[in-house]
Design a protein that fits this description.
With 461 residues, the chain is α/β, with parallel strands linked by helices. The chain folds into four domains: 70 residues; 80 residues; 146 residues, Histidine kinase-like ATPase, C-terminal domain (Heat Shock Protein 90), CATH 3.30.565.10; 116 residues, Response regulator (Rossmann fold), CATH 3.40.50.2300. It is 54% helix and 15% strand. It contains 13 helices and twelve strands. The chain has a five-stranded mixed beta sheet, with helices on one face. It has a five-stranded parallel beta sheet with strand order 9-8-10-11-12, sandwiched between helices. Helix 10 packs parallel to helix 11. The chain is flat and about 115 Å long.
Length: 461
C-alpha cells in the first residue's frame, strides 16, 4: 500500500515543487487508480495550464507597453527631431535652388557660345568671353554641393537614430553603450537645451552585449525625465549631465539633473507602473518602471538619489557581457575588375534606380528594372555577374527574385547584393540578419557599393 501511495504522491509532490519554482512545464499523469489523487492531479495540470496562459498574456502586455512607451517618447521628441531635419533640409533645398539657377545660366552661356561659333560671329564671341563663368563661381558651386552632402548626412543620422530607437524587439547583439547614449542624447538634445546645458562625458567602455533598442529606450526615458524636471527659462544656470565609466568592473551610466527633485513620497513610488506626477495626457507613467525592467533584464541595477529643489541622479550599473570574438580573415583587397562586369539593378523607385545607373554606369555594364517580375525574366535570359536588388518591393520582393534566380542559376547565390531602407516584415528582418555584408543600407555609398559588386561579382569566376 505504501508503495502505491508513493507512486501516486511522488509525481504530485514533484509538480507542486516545480510550480513553486515557477516551472510550469511539468504535468502530472492521471492514472485512474485513486479518484482523490486523480482530482488533485487534474487540478494541478489545469493550474499549470492557466499559469502558462497568464504568463504569455503578461509577456504580450509587457511588449505592448514597451512599444507604447517608445511611441510616447517619440511623440514627445518629435518637435526637436523635426528641427534637426528641417534645418539641414532648409539649406540643402536653398543650395540646390541656387545650383539650378547657376546651371541655367551656364547652359544659356554654352548655348550662346555654340550659336556664335556656328555663325562665326567674332564680336559676339569676344563679348561672351568676358561673361565666361569664373573659377570662383565654380568653387562656390563645389562648396554648395559639399554643404548639401553634409546636410543629407545629418538627416540620415536622425533617421538612423529613430530606426534604432523605434525598431521591433531584436536579439541581443554586440554593442557599445556609449554609441547608444549618443543616440539618446541626439534624440533629446533639442528638448533639453531650452531648459539646461547638456553635458556629455563618455569614458571609453568595453564592448558588451545587449538589446540595442531597449537600452536606447531606457537611456532616452531617463534623459526625457531629466529635461522635464527643469523649468524653461534659465538654461545657463541648469544642467543635465550624462556620464559613463567603468567602476569595479561594471559598466556605469549616470544621468543627473539640477531640476525640482522628488519628495520622499514620490521617491517611494517612481518605479510603480502608471505612476506619474505629470498632468493628464503628458505622461504614461511607464517610463521609469520599464527602464528599471530593461536594466534588470540585462542583469543590472538602477538606483537614484534625489533632493527636493536640487535635482536627481540616476545610476545604472550593468555587468560586462564579453562577446565571443571570432578571428576573421582580413577582406581581400579590391582591385579593378579585368573586364566590365554585367550588373542588373532592381528597385521599384524610379528615381533611386536612375541614381544607381548614374553612379555605376561608368564602371559596369548596367541593366535596370523597377519590376521584380521582369528581373526574374532578365535573369533567366542573361548571364549577369552581379545583381543589386531592393529588398522590399510591392509586386515581387527581393527574396522572391533571389529564390527564383537560384532555381535557374545556383551560382548566383554569392553574387546578389541586397539594398534596403529598412526591413519591415518579420521575414525580411530575419533575412537582414542572415545576409551580413550582402546587405547595403540606404542611402547608398557608391564607392562601397562598387567595391562590393567587384568583390562578389568576381567570386563566380
Amino acid at each position: 500500500m505504501t508503495s502505491e501511495l508513493d507512486a501516486e504522491l511522488n509525481p504530485l509532490v514533484d509538480a507542486i515543487i516545480a510550480v513553486a519554482s515557477l516551472d510550469f512545464s511539468r504535468r502530472v499523469p492521471v492514472l485512474g487508480r485513486m479518484p482523490v489523487f486523480d482530482g488533485i492531479a487534474t487540478g494541478l495540470n489545469m493550474l499549470a495550464d492557466e499559469l502558462v496562459m497568464r504568463l504569455e498574456e503578461e509577456r504580450a502586455l509587457r511588449a505592448r507597453l514597451l512599444h507604447s512607451d517608445r511611441l510616447a517618447a517619440v511623440g514627445q521628441l518629435a518637435a526637436g527631431m523635426a528641427h534637426e531635419v528641417n534645418n539641414p533640409a532648409t539649406y540643402v533645398l536653398a543650395n540646390l535652388d541656387f545650383l539650378a539657377r547657376n546651371l541655367a545660366k551656364h547652359r544659356a552661356y554654352a548655348q550662346a557660345v555654340s550659336e556664335a561659333n556656328a555663325a562665326r560671329d567674332e564680336a559676339r564671341l569676344l563679348e561672351l568671353s568676358r561673361l565666361a563663368p569664373s573659377v570662383a563661381s565654380l568653387d562656390e558651386s563645389a562648396r554648395l554641393i559639399s554643404e548639401c552632402r553634409e546636410g543629407m548626412r545629418r538627416i540620415v543620422s536622425v533617421v538612423t537614430d529613430l530606426r534604432i530607437f523605434s525598431r521591433s524587439e531584436g536579439q541581443d547583439e554586440t554593442l557599445d553603450l556609449n554609441e547608444l547614449l549618443e543616440v539618446a542624447v541626439r534624440m533629446v538634445k533639442k528638448t533639453i537645451t531650452y531648459r539646461a546645458q547638456l553635458v556629455v562625458e563618455l569614458e571609453p567602455l568595453p564592448i558588451t552585449r545587449g538589446n540595442r533598442a531597449r537600452l536606447t529606450q531606457a537611456f532616452t526615458n531617463l534623459l526625457v525625465n531629466a529635461g522635464q524636471a527643469i523649468a524653461e527659462g534659465s538654461p545657463d544656470t541648469q544642467r543635465v549631465r550624462v556620464h559613463s565609466s567603468v567602476l569595479d568592473g561594471e559598466l556605469r551610466v549616470v544621468i543627473e539633473d539640477t531640476g525640482v527633485g522628488m519628495t520622499p513620497e514620490v521617491q517611494r513610488r517612481i518605479f510603480e507602473p502608471f505612476f506619474t506626477t505629470k498632468p493628464p495626457g503628458e505622461g504614461t507613467g511607464l517610463g521609469l518602471s520599464l527602464t528599471a525592467e530593461i536594466v534588470h533584464q540585462h542583469g543590472g541595477v538602477i538606483s537614484f538619489t534625489s533632493t527636493p529643489g536640487k535635482g536627481t541622479t540616476f545610476e545604472l550599473r550593468l555587468p560586462p557581457r564579453i562577446p565571443v570574438r571570432r578571428r576573421e580573415a582580413p577582406p581581400p583587397p579590391v582591385t579593378p575588375a579585368p573586364e566590365r562586369l554585367r550588373v542588373l539593378l532592381i528597385d521599384d523607385e524610379p528615381l533611386v534606380l536612375r541614381a544607381y545607373q548614374r553612379g555605376l554606369r561608368d564602371d559596369f555594364d548596367v541593366t535596370a528594372t523597377t519590376s521584380g517580375g521582369e528581373a526574374i525574366e532578365l535573369l533567366r535570359r542573361n548571364p549577369y555577374d552581379s545583381v543589386v536588388c531592393d529588398l522590399m518591393m510591392p509586386d515581387t520582393d527581393g527574396l522572391a527574385v533571389y529564390e527564383a534566380a537560384l532555381a535557374h542559376r545556383p551560382e548566383l547565390a554569392l553574387s546578389f547584393i541586397f539594398v534596403s531602407g529598412g526591413p519591415f516584415t518579420e521575414r525580411t528582418r530575419r533575412l537582414a540578419v542572415e545576409l551580413g555584408d550582402a546587405l547595403v543600407r540606404k542611402p547608398v555609398d557608391f564607392e562601397t557599393l562598387k567595391a562590393l559588386i567587384i568583390l562578389r561579382g568576381r567570386r563566380e569566376g
